[in-house]
Amino acid sequence: MEEKGRIGIPRALMFYRYLPLWRTFFERLGWRVMISDGTRQKEKIVYFEDSCLPMKLLVTHAVQLKDKVDHLFIPRLVSIHRSYMMCPKFRGAPDIVRLATEGNVSIIDETVDLRERGTSLLQSFLKIGGKLGASRQESKRAFREAEKSFAKFQKDWVNRINELSAAQLFELDVPLSPMRKKAPFRIAFIGHPYNLFDIDINKDLLALAKSLQMEIVTSDLLSEKEIDRQVSDLSKEIYWSSGREIVGSLFHFLSAGVDGIVFPTSFKCGIDALLQEFIRRKLKVEGGTSVPLLVLSLDEHTGREGLTTRLEAFRDVVEERKKLQSSNVKVQMNDK
Length: 336
Description:
Layout: E1 5-9, H1 15-28, E2 31-35, H2 53-65, E3 71-73, E4 76-79, H3 88-100, E5 106-108, E6 111-113, H4 121-131, H5 136-155, H6 157-163, E7 185-189, H7 193-197, H8 199-202, H9 205-211, E8 214-217, H10 224-231, H11 241-255, E9 260-266, H12 270-286, E10 293-298, H13 304-335
Parallel strand pairs: 1-2, 1-3, 3-5, 4-6, 7-8, 7-9, 9-10
């Protein structure tokens, strides 16, 4: 198929969940997808007042791409769930980028709001395809292929996250080992996908975790039904879809199944601040937790050395707890 042009996708925000879906859709329609490079020099970050680091990075990556592409893809994500909504800043993201790029690049900013009756993700992508000159049939076929590609990507997620580097994590055709050796410490990393996987935010936290013999699991292993069950007895409803996922996952893993939990958060993120309060209240009512929990607040001033020190100390706590549990089991067996 002849290349129709170039579409730029900034390496930020929900790129870190939906890139396989987005990329396949555009490529099947004949467009070349260009991804922005990483930015690891603080002076290159484009600053906007009252913005969290993930939003600043969206603008930075968009500016990096604007002269290299025909269109930037920055969807207006209002809701990706039938009942809950995204952070309000996602709604304004295309407008912030348009202001930063001074209107010098076309922005595909189709609204995705699945709370509205009769809407679907397919319909949103049919509109996107139409704006790019594709027929309804072509767009529908491209979307179905993108869904299949995304499903395969998700199926391989546990192996992918434990085997691949951050640079390879969202590449579709990287081979995976059929027999992966598991690490001794099973640690749940819970948070917004960009906090977990954007190395400009977390200084390659997952690579550091793997070097410390941590087997990584994430909330992607849990069903929506399990998330709902875990948050069902909260005194107040959580209306943010990402917030429900984070809190439900934390409660699930705090009760069983892992040796420890790491919760990376964005400084200046109001949602994360409220989620931490939900978690503190729940643990206070239940008398705490025996599973070690590490909360990391991340911003543009975060250094890798500090993260290394904290994660190493956390690993030591996890290791001592496992030794104590093993000793208790042996004592119980001898008593019998």
